[in-house]
Specification:
The protein has helices at residues 2-35, 39-42, 58-65, 68-99, 105-114, 120-133, 141-144, 152-162, 168-175, 180-191, 193-209, 212-217, 226-236, 241-272. By secondary structure, it is an all-alpha fold.
Length: 277
Amino acid sequence: MVHARKWIGRAITHLILIGLGFVFFVPFAFLVSTAFKSERQIFVYPPIWIPNPIIWRNFTDVFDYAPFGRYLINTLYIVVAHLFGTVVTCSLTGYAFARLRAPGRDAIFMVLLSTMMVPWMVTLIPVYILFARLEWINTFRPLVIPPLLGNTFYIFLLRQYYMTIPYDLDEAALMDGSGYLRIWWTILMPLSKPVLATVAIFSFMGAWNDFTGPLIFLNNKEKYTLSLGLQVFREAHGAAWGLLMAASTMMIVPVIVLFFFTQKQFVQGITLTGIKG
């Protein structure tokens, strides 16, 4: 009887998850389907889910209407800076908060966590004024330099994960003559692949999909990112829905592929960061 109840409960849970997954999958499927349609097939009712014929040229024609190649290069430049800054800087900071003993360490960490409660809209104007006085407006600096200074959420994740690693490893390395930086690089970093993958995925998605930052700090269209490029394309060619869906599909696919190949590390990193606080 107990086994039957567990089986029924699991079945109900899986049905609910499948239903929710279907709800989220349908708009994406329609997006991809529309990317391969001609304009005549897009507004047909009932909707056509499998285009016939398949219009492959939408994915090439979109580059004739907007410089998406340039937008892609700009986006990749910002993404790479985000990945390097968050993984290295946040990892070092999380290591210091988790492994190094110092007076007031925990108090400083609590002050750092309190900054997460400040909405970004509150600091937007002061940050813009600061960057304007530094003459960084219409450059990539406001988008690539702040990640080099760390991110509170990523520091928290890494710190929590580092605290799950036995401190005996550090003591053994110190006895062998290793310094703190060498311990971080040769011991903790190889053991932290799951949480590093999690931080990298979050950082990649944040930089890849960021719309507000480039909108505020970039004025020259030659420096636009993909998110801004889609908005410019929609304003200029709003009626070309096939081309717009093709461009949107090309922007979404890298995120899906990244998560598909790193989902195991992503889930493991999120799970283990809350074991010990």
